[in-house]
Automatic annotation (TrEMBL):
Domain of life: Bacteria
Domain Uracil-DNA glycosylase-like, residue spans: 45-203
Family the UniProt entry places it in: Belongs to the uracil-DNA glycosylase (UDG) superfamily. Type 4 (UDGa) family.
Keyword Methyltransferase: no
InterPro entries reported in the protein's UniProt record: UDG_Type-4/5, Ura-DNA_glyco_family4, Uracil-DNA_glycosylase-like, Uracil-DNA_glycosylase-like_sf
The keyword Flavoprotein is annotated on this UniProt entry: no
Protein's recorded name: Type-4 uracil-DNA glycosylase
Organism of provenance: Saccharothrix xinjiangensis
Lineage of the organism: Bacteria, Bacillati, Actinomycetota, Actinomycetes, Pseudonocardiales
Pfam families, alphabetized: UDG (PF03167)
Amino acid sequence: MATASRTKPSAASFVPEGADLAALRRAAAGCRGCHLYEDATRTVFGEGPEDARVLLVGEQPGDVEDRRGEPFVGPAGRLLDKALAEAGLDRAEAYLTNAVKHFKFTLDARGKRRIHKSPARGEVTACLPWLHAELARVEPDLVVCLGAVAAKAVLGNDFKVTERRGRVERHEGRDVIATIHPSAVLRAPDRDEAYQGFLADLRVVREHLER
């Protein structure tokens, strides 16, 4: 007996063609492209200037971002702000977003605290039309991938941050650099060493933009 084919979840049908960032943000608020919206508080879309020269993309919003509706405003965001400033980069001039726009989590044993859970590949793929729309609208000079999920979303599933971080690569007509996610710095056994490595990668970003 033949089984019916299943359509893979995708946000594609929710993305308005040719829309500016404001219209994309409004449309994303109603996205039902995958199941993650069911438990998240809201869609957390990207923020920043439409003419930003650098676009930073992370994995997904965290607990604080989900509650506030803004990207990179939790502990990892504060560390990112510190590193950007130290590297000579202005967050206000960058566009910040995530590969996945809804917070995926599991509850702790008491059922109260929401604990981050990495998105599955299918969930990342389902959300990619939003990232593609942001990239097409912003047209940054450089894309900065923060962490493995973001790097695989932009550069392909075979990309390994541990092997290729900190160097600018050309991919599908764009300059892209990958580094670790700021949350990885917060989790590192030697936080200072991890931070210095992260900072070194961001300084490569600044140097590239100054060329």
